Amino acid sequence: MQEPVIRITERPKPPRPEELNLRFSERAVKELEALFTHYPDKKSAMLPALWIAQREYGGHLTADAIAEVAYRLGRSYAEVEGVATFYTMYNKSPVGKYMLEVCTNLTCMICGAYRILEYLEQKLGIKLGETTPDGLFTLTEVECLNNCGDAPVMQVGDIYCRRLTPEKIDELIEQLRTGEEHSVVQLADAEVQIHLSERERETIEEALRRV
Length: 211
Ligand code: FES
Prior knowledge:
Elements: H1 26-36, H2 46-56, H3 63-73, H4 77-86, E1 98-103, H5 106-110, H6 113-124, E2 137-142, E3 154-156, E4 159-161, H7 166-178, H8 183-195, H9 198-210
Helix pairs in contact: 1-2, 1-9, 2-3, 2-8, 3-4
FE2/S2 (inorganic) cluster binds at residues 103, 105-108, 144-148, 151, 153.
């Protein structure tokens, strides 16, 4: 009889309560406190709290990061994990410093998105879903980036690269290789900042200066 094939997706083991290792920085804690005032209850701040965690944990949500959000929001690990795994913008495994997200939806596909993907795979020496050995680039495909008029399109952090050609890719990769910023972390930070008012940002800066 043929063996049944069972695929079990790897699920990181949640830490036990006594193993909880809180890693949010002072800034992160203050941001979270400010965010709580925007909502009727802590649970409603889950999405920005996960952005904070993604930034604080270096670009992806580990089991510890999810457990910390659950602890700070007073929710169960399973509940926070359910939200974190539903949305694709939260990374569940380590990713490169730059996420190259190529749109392969209809318009981009017709305009050569798969040729662009192949070019990137050859140039970086990785396959879709992989990260370069130097930890710089992760290559993924995404659904419509809502920029169909400029297809084919790729998102890198908060930058949209439009009307892609191999030449444009060469130029971009070169720029990113010498760049200082960490676009995955910066994107998470930008998302958090969007939720905070000017006044809240000033108050947080002021409080941190006093420490
Ligand atoms: S199909 Fe690629 S941006 Fe819309």
